[in-house]
Specification:
This protein is an alpha+beta fold and about 550 residues long. It folds into three domains: about 260 residues, 2-Layer Sandwich (BirA Bifunctional Protein, domain 2); about 120 residues, YbaK protein (Alpha-Beta Complex); about 100 residues, 3-Layer(aba) Sandwich (Rossmann fold). The chain has 15 helices and 31 strands. β30 and β31 form a beta hairpin.
Amino acid sequence: MKYSKLLIPTLKETPSEAEAISHILMLRGGYVRQLAAGLYVYMPLFIRVMKKIDTIIRQEMDAIGAQEVSMPVLHPAEVWQKTGRWYDIKDEMFRLKDRTGRDMCLAMTHEEIMTWLASREIRSYRDLPQMWYQIQTKLRDEARPKSGILRTREFIMKDSYSFDVDTDGLNTSYELHAEAYKKIYARCGLKFYVVDSDPGMMGGATAHEYMAPSAAGEDAAAICSACGYAANVELAESVSQAVEFKESAFEEVFTPEKRTVEEVSQFLGLSAYNFIKTLVLVTKDGPVLALIRGDQELHEKKTERIIGEFRAARKDEIEGIVGVEAGFIGPLGHKIRTIADNALKTGTYVIGANKKDYHVRGLKPGVHFTADYYDLHAAHENDGCPMCGKPLTIERVIEIGNIFKLGTKYSEALNAVFLDKDGVEKPIVMGSYGIGPARIAASAIEQNHDENGIIWPVSIAPFSVVILPLNVNDVPTQKSAEDIYNALVSNSVDVLIDDRDERAGIKFKDADLIGIPLQVVIGPKGLKENVVEIKIRKSKESLKVSPAMVLKTVMELIG
């Protein structure tokens, strides 16, 4: 491919709207252009990257026996209504009516439609197992689209679905996908973690996410390098860091106008971990008191799994529930369900006295009050691993894929059943598995770049090699460049030749910016010595070889 014939509109300046490194470099490198918030045009270079990623995905999906299909993006509402997600999903779903007034929606995902198909095509246990996948457009009315293509309103996803006769079959399909995903990310050159995750709106009992570490990540994962424990912080358990408690008599203390942990701790000369925060939560079954150590935060998702959906009580309703204004609430004397974090099982604490301007110190859990104990706190850096006790690290991560054991949630709702060996009708047992190809690309940039631009892994680079003739008006230089180009093309190497009549400095800057892994530099001076330079973008290593050795050297370098 000739550079002069390809649309590569590079930018010198950093766009003001871009924050994530991948967003900045994709705009500057001419890979994408933004149409509106969360809507992007994929330019020719990025299409080449996406095709490389899609090819790897297809190869690994085909290798485990999955079959490719293509589902509509426009769905009738009644399919989603049968599973209940039409009502459960709120503003994230794009909804519309067709010309007859029929309710429709744009696909966020395809569990319903895949199950609809299975309900019509699968009749007997002899038809199972099945695995179907597609690479298709999805749409989500994202409230805060940001970070370039990492959080958008329209995106492409590889989603696959498994259909089995029982849980053992689902476990097999799940493991096949789990291993295929590892191969996909490894082939794409990514560093990644497999972490326990919350099934969320997908439902089901078990879920895992594939996370690429990156400062631009919208999620965080708790990682134990000692034993390999890994979990999304929404699910991660941890052992709270040990702290020293100050023993004191059980007594009320006057704390005038001191409401927050920070204010009371300064007033009493204690640390935040010597306090218990008492939070008033409102659920459909009534109020709940949640107790958390003063230096920690209540984790919303963990708490929701215990008490169901909840909200924090408003200031104007707190006094009506517990009889005291916010800032002086404690766990003593209330006939309200009380849950407490595991870290509070031991120690001596300060609590609200349930009386304005007063707190109580010297409180001992199990002695002065009782509660139901759970892991309620958000995991922190250096908390203990729940498996081995060694310190956890918290890393920002980008979600690049997820897998779910759905069970029979969708098959029961949509009557996707089969007849077993005894002629008994049973619901199909399902799994769902998603990968974001564009997120793979963005993560690769986040993990592979320098001050000059992108450094693509060879496997997903738009081109493996860029040839840089430094003087296109010099006949020997031009001929050598064309000979090397033709030799590489003949050996199925993706190669770009920069045939522009530009200064060498511009060519080098653009080549570094767009991130082609290998640069073959050809100049009149080098040719006089029968030398061509091969630059390795990632290591910055430079090799000098004869023109005749370029093909062999390149083939070895790209593997």
